[in-house]
Amino acid sequence: MTIKSTHLQDTFLDQVSAENIAVSIYLLNGIKLQGHIESYDQYVIVLNGSAPQLIYKHAISTIVPSQKITLKGL
């Protein structure tokens, strides 16, 4: 039997990335970054705004989508 484990953050990041929803990412030091999530893995997020940025997840406080979303598959 195969059990698929999906993490909530993966569901969220998949959806905002697939639907090309703009996000605001707040870092622990208070800096606000804006753009679209291009890709991500276990440790980083690639944000495409005015220029592509590689952001380490451990530096992120909050990710806020620009519009209301209903997470699919929950």
From TrEMBL:
The keyword Transit peptide does not apply. GO terms for molecular function: RNA binding. Keywords: RNA-binding, Stress response. Residues 10-69 form the Sm domain. The keyword RNA-binding applies. GO terms for cellular component: cytosol. GO terms for biological process: regulation of DNA-templated transcription; regulation of RNA stability; regulation of translation, ncRNA-mediated. It comes from the Bacteria. Homohexamer. Belongs to the Hfq family. RNA chaperone that binds small regulatory RNA (sRNAs) and mRNAs to facilitate mRNA translational regulation in response to envelope stress, environmental stress and changes in metabolite concentrations. Also binds with high specificity to tRNAs. This is RNA-binding protein Hfq. The lineage of its organism: Bacteria, Pseudomonadati, Pseudomonadota, Betaproteobacteria, Nitrosomonadales.
